[in-house]
Amino acid sequence: MGEMIKIGMADLNACKYPGALTTLGLGSCVGIALYDPSTKVGGMAHIMLPDSTKIRKNENHAKFADTGIDELIKQMISLGANKHNLVAKIAGGAQMFAFTSNNDMLRIGDRNVEATKAKLSSLGIRVIGEDTGLNYGRTIEFYTETGDLLIKSVGKPIKTI
After folding, report:
1. CA 141 to CA 2: how far, in whole Å?
2. Which of 42, 50, 97, 149 would bridge with 89, disulfide CB 3.0–4.6 Å?
3. Domain limits at 10?
4. CB of 43 closer than 8 Å to CB of 4
5. Of 20, 29, 69, 88, catalytic
6. How many domains does one find in the chain?
7. C-alpha span between 54 and 40 (Å, rounded)
8. What's one GO BP annotation on this UniProt entry (predicted)?
9. Is 70 exceeded by the pLDDT of residue 74?
């Protein structure tokens, strides 16, 4: 197995097989894993907010679903990925507070998931695996050899999508 590359919050990175990618502690944030099965190039973004157009000074592209996905694809293509082969797996977007609310600020997890799916859909990238919502945090690991996304949550069995 290759090197395990850590992705921080509002961060992204891409690698080729045999590299792997991980991000810790996804709460309302969404972890997006993109993969080109033919070249075994993978990428991961840990996005915090749905939409960069709502924020004035946003130098950090990785923080937002829209700009983060664009930047991730750019990095993957530079490693040899073909945009037309990309598939996506997403995890996170939890509602970390125990009350239901229609207040949009509190629905950030849902909005992150919706924005991620909308952006991927607009680029013609299929979401082939998903573990989102509910009320617990997730740590994810993405393996370029297989395209497997492992999801670890406290007190729950490890899930592979």
Report:
1. 13
2. 149
3. 4-160
4. no
5. 29
6. 1
7. 34
8. chemotaxis
9. yes
Length of the chain: 161
Tell me how far apart the alpha carbons of residues 129 and 32 are, in angstroms, rounded to a whole number. Answer: 10
Share in percent of the chain as helix, strand, coil (round to 5): 25, 35, 40
**Interatomic CA distance for residues 93 and 26, integer angstroms:** 7
> Residue 29 catalytic?
yes
Pairing between strand 138-143 and 149-152?
A: antiparallel
Q: Which string of b and e fits 34-58 if b means at least 16 CB within 10 Å?
A: bbbeebbbbbbbbbbbbbbeeeeee
pLDDT, tens only, 19-51:
999 999 999 999 999 999 999 999 999 999 999
Measured N-to-C along each axis, helices 108-122 and 65-78 cross at an angle, to the nearest 10 degrees, of: 50
CATH number for the domain including 142?
3.30.1330.200
How far apart are alpha carbons 54 and 74 in whole angstroms? 23
pTM for the complete prediction?
0.94
